[in-house]
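Section 4.2 – Deliverable D4.2 (structural model, holo form)

The reporting period included a commitment to supply a predicted holo structure for the target in complex with adenosine-5'-diphosphate. Inputs used:
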Amino acid sequence: MGKNQMATQTDIISLHKICKSFPLEIGGTQQVLFDIDINIKSGEFVSIMGPSGSGKSTCMNIIGALDSATSGTYELYGRDISTMTADELAIVRNEYIGFVFQNFNLLPKRNILDNVMLPLMYRGLPMSERVSKSREMLKLVGLSEFETYLPTQLSGGMKQRVAIARALAGTPKLILADEPTGALDSKMGNEILQFFKKLNRDMGITIVMITHEFDIAKYSDRLIHIYDGRVTYDGKIPRSESDLMPKHKRESK
Ligand code: ADP
Ligand code: MG
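Output (structure tokens):
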């Protein structure tokens, strides 16, 4: 067992032997994740990398408590999530986690400020505080002048910055980003990645980012490679992408 496989008290995310299967319409099931062991500490910037269909989003949905595993245990901030009610899970998601998705998930008919403010509605904050907090976050991502714009009026990179401002408005300890640069060109993608680095370094926010590209994973400090639903690498960013393939696959190439 490598050091990353052993759960410790400082881990905020601890998956142990996580398996996930989906029922198939034709009957039977398809197993997507096999005995996943992942432990992540507060303050880490980790990427989960693997080819399309390897199970990254499935894994992310479990980490974000959006979906549950078929077997195995998952502790988030020291609590076994299988013992929590749906309401408790919603509270944990809302208070600890900021989600960022490839396609931004902004409400198209609401302006930028409303989009950022929306998750704060569930916090019971007075309107004036929701507005000031959201403006502060828009300033942080450099979009103060655009608060009355609609998402459709902005570039992809700007939309993703709105989504990040929305995630940050909830003061999350953890950001889960699923292919956050997947819909962006490389210049805008680079800006988003630099911004994640800054949030991680300056604000101590833990970041778990999913990507299928090695060049994007390189921005993080630790890479977990998933291949066919199994972790095949977990450690520092390797020198070359070929170091990530399971040994038998490398040799047969
Ligand atoms: P990735 O994010 O690495 O591209 P996913 O986790 O989205 O991979 O998908 C992995 C596999 O699980 C795919 O074969 C996909 O079809 C299947 N899958 C994902 N979500 C579901 C679901 N809700 N129902 C059935 N199959 C699913
Ligand atoms: Mg995916």
